[in-house]
Amino acid sequence: xxxxxxxxxxxxxxxxxxxxxxxxxxxxxxxxxxxxxxxxxxxxxxxxxxxxxxxxxxxxxxxxxxxxxxxxxxxxxxxxxxxxxxxx
Length: 88
What we know:
The protein starts with a helix and ends with a helix. It has helices spanning 3-9, 24-46, 52-67, 69-78, 80-87. It is elongated. It is an all-alpha fold. The chain contains 5 helices and no strands. The model has no long low-confidence stretch (mean pLDDT 76). Helix content is 73%, strand content 0%. The protein has a domain at 49-77.
């Protein structure tokens, strides 16, 4: 029996990627928890204000933070870092 015959008769090794991929239902659950956290922080920013000026300031801060979410989502969705590695 030659070494090549021995290689052909052996079972292929099953490699598992590491770190293991996170299941989609877990990612969706984390996404929902983060959405609830953002909503709670937003409500907390608006409700405990004691004066109109404080309320307007909190609202403006919240709007500025939220204005960055759409561009950030577009950047993450486009994944420019993966495109560069595919071209190389």
